[in-house]
């Protein structure tokens, strides 16, 4: 997508607790020159909600309003977008999609530390076991732009950071 004036658009997706925010903030402006967009933060700042889910104890994202809010920034390029779901984003938005995956025992501990309990905890672990978000990404985007990354250990997370930063450099070199 050579029309992007500020660089590629990258989607980081995966089950909560897989390391999207850690990776996204590391890939942000200081390291790559790309803008980091955490959809949860944008939704909170702009109040882009459509109700509250009492079962999961969280607000319900208004996906249409999120799309409207971000359309201009995304069309200019140069963004790393972080969100646990991906099927509602327009396919044209992203040059590459990375689905972070984490070993279930590691993920369980991370989610417990965040205060996840009961159905919210078990549903997120099941989501990872059944690779729900990987399948969602593969169904929503061209297969050649969807990449699965293991994100269980600090070494894997550092390797992911290096590989994505290298990919960004290559993209920029081929899109002057």
From TrEMBL:
One of its GO terms (cellular component) is cytoplasm. It is an enzyme of class 2 (transferase). Residues 113-123 are annotated as: LID. Keywords: ATP-binding, Cytoplasm, Kinase, Nucleotide-binding, Nucleus, Ribosome biogenesis, rRNA processing, Transferase. Residues 11-20 have a biased composition (Low complexity). ATP binds at residues 17, 19-22, 114. GO terms for biological process: ribosomal small subunit biogenesis; rRNA processing. The keyword Kinase applies. It catalyses: AMP + ATP = 2 ADP; ATP + H2O = ADP + phosphate + H(+). Residues 1-20 are annotated as: Disordered. Residues 38-61 are annotated as: NMPbind. Coiled coil: none annotated. It is found in: Cytoplasm; Nucleus. One of its GO terms (molecular function) is ATP hydrolysis activity. Its EC number is 2.7.4.3. Belongs to the adenylate kinase family. AK6 subfamily. Broad-specificity nucleoside monophosphate (NMP) kinase that catalyzes the reversible transfer of the terminal phosphate group between nucleoside triphosphates and monophosphates. Has also ATPase activity. Involved in the late cytoplasmic maturation steps of the 40S ribosomal particles, specifically 18S rRNA maturation. While NMP activity is not required for ribosome maturation, ATPase activity is. Associates transiently with small ribosomal subunit protein uS11. ATP hydrolysis breaks the interaction with uS11. Monomer and homodimer. Interacts with small ribosomal subunit protein uS11. Not a structural component of 43S pre-ribosomes, but transiently interacts with them by binding to uS11. This is Adenylate kinase isoenzyme 6 homolog.
């Amino acid at each position: 997508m050579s029309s992007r004036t500020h660089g590629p658009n990258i989607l980081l997706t995966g089950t909560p607790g897989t390391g999207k925010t850690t990776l996204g903030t590391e890939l942000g402006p200081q390291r790559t020159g790309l803008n980091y967009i955490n959809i949860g933060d944008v939704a909170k700042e702009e109040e882009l909600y459509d109700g509250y889910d009492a079962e999961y104890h969280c607000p319900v994202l208004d996906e249409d309003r999120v799309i409207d809010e971000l359309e201009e920034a995304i069309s200019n390029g140069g963004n790393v977008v972080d969100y646990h779901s991906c099927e509602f984003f327009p396919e044209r938005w992203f040059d590459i999609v990375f689905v972070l995956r984490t070993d279930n025992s590691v993920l369980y501990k991370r989610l417990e530390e965040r205060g996840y309990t009961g159905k919210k905890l078990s549903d997120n672990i099941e989501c990872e076991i059944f690779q729900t978000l990987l399948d969602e990404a593969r169904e929503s985007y061209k297969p050649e732009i969807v990449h699965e990354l293991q994100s269980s250990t600090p070494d894997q997370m550092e390797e992911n950071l290096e590989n994505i930063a290298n990919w960004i450099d290559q993209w920029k070199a081929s899109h002057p």
